[in-house]
């Protein structure tokens, strides 16, 4: 029985250690996202805009209660880190609801929408299992925080603070 418990603990530890990625997969980078003006662009092209900048990505949806609840924390994060860029990727079901959500919650930053929701190709490519989800990319383009949720704002703040000092 002890051996089984040790194997389970080892598997959990190993799978958790694999959760922190430092780059996006080819699938994620090649996936197309909807632009606010109705066009399509690849995630790779979106990320090119932020080369040399610290970037916070939030994956959210207007229907998500936890996302809406976290909005004041996101606005506080933006106020405390004005030198950081903010990218919002929506898992909304329709472009209309997505755009209404941006306006209603006065979300400042760049906005794109996944074409096939949370469980689609892009969602799977970034291991999306919960929203809101936060990803932080440093100035070199490396992912420094891959999986953070609305209860992780201390970790998000610490990560941004450490990047300022780097």
UniProtKB/TrEMBL annotation:
Q: Which compartments is it annotated to reside in?
A: Cell envelope
Gene Ontology MF annotations: isomerase activity; oxidoreductase activity
GO BP of this protein: cytochrome complex assembly
CDD domains under this entry?
A: TlpA_like_family
Report keywords, A-Z: Cytochrome c-type biogenesis, Disulfide bond, Isomerase, Redox-active center, Signal
Q: Specify one Pfam family.
A: Redoxin
GO cellular component terms, alphabetically, are: cell envelope
The positions making up the signal sequence are 1-19
The record's InterPro entries line, in alphabetical order, gives:
Redoxin, Thioredoxin-like_sf, Thioredoxin_domain, Thioredoxin_ResA/DsbE_sf
PROSITE patterns from the entry?
PROKAR_LIPOPROTEIN, THIOREDOXIN_2
> Per the database record, which ranges form the Thioredoxin domain?
22-165
Q: What's the protein name?
A: Thiol-disulfide isomerase or thioredoxin
């Amino acid at each position: 029985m002890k051996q089984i418990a040790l194997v389970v603990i080892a598997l959990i530890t190993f799978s958790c250690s694999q959760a922190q990625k430092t780059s996006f997969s080819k699938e994620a980078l090649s996936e197309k996202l909807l632009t606010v003006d109705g066009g399509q662009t690849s995630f790779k092209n979106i990320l090119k805009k932020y080369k040399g900048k610290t970037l916070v990505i939030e994956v959210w949806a207007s229907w998500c209660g936890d996302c809406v609840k976290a909005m004041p924390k996101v606005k506080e994060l933006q106020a405390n880190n004005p030198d950081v860029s903010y990218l919002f990727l929506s898992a909304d079901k329709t472009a209309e609801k997505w755009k209404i959500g941006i306006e209603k919650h006065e979300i400042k930053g760049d906005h794109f929408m996944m074409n096939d929701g949370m469980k689609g190709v892009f969602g799977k490519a970034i291991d999306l299992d919960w929203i809101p989800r936060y990803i932080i990319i440093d100035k070199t383009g490396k992912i420094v925080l891959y999986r953070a949720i609305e209860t992780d704002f201390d970790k998000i703040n610490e990560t941004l603070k450490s990047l300022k000092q780097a």
